[in-house]
Amino acid sequence: MASIKIEIKWAIIFSIMGLVWMLLEKLSGLHSTYIDYHLYLTNLFAIPAIWVMVLALKEKKKVYYNGNISYKQGLISGIFLSFIIALFSPLTQWITTYIITPDYFPNVIKRSVEIGYFKTTAEAEANFNYSNYAVQGAIAALIMGLVTTAIAMIFIRTKK
Question: What is the Cβ-side half-sphere exposure of residue 59, based on CA atoms within 13 angstroms?
């Protein structure tokens, strides 16, 4: 457990950051008035997400490995971190869906049918729902975490 203490800490930080991001999206109107821009602007979350992953890997290098970390060690750490974030993802999606912004799915369903992205409300509802987003979020967290780690460790690893 002590060996993944840093990953658990940073997964919690990442999850809180994601919830704050969702709150900011809601407050800025991206889940209602400016929902047409949500599809594009929500991708800016990649910036703080990458930053937090890098900070976590740097802390692992500094604290756990005393400043010397191999690519493989960092990759393993990033895999654990990504897996923990993915495990937390359904909970953070639940908080987002039912507490932070319960109007998001009805708004995006309505708008996606209005603009013809989906032909029927039923088609839109099949895509925009908690279950679908919980699964997609967990898978995306795992994949993006692994990709971020694989790239970041090129720069973070101790070079010999």
Answer: 17
Tell me, what's the pLDDT at 160?
Answer: 78
Residue 1 has what pLDDT? 65
- In this prediction the pTM is 0.95
- State how far the Cα of 25 lies from the Cα of 89, in Å rounded to an integer: 18
* Sign, Cα dihedral of 7, 13, 16, 20: negative
**Cα separations (Å) of 37 from 19, 46, 114, 129?**
19, 16, 15, 19
Number of residues written out for the chain: 160
Distance in angstroms (rounded) separating the CA atoms of residues 7 and 153: 15
Long-range pairs for 42-48 at CB < 8 Å and ≥24 separation? 45/18, 45/21, 46/144, 48/17, 48/21
Alpha-carbon torsion angle 9, 138, 18, 82, nearest 10:
30
Q: What is d(CA 119, CA 63) in angstroms, rounded to the nearest whole number?
A: 53
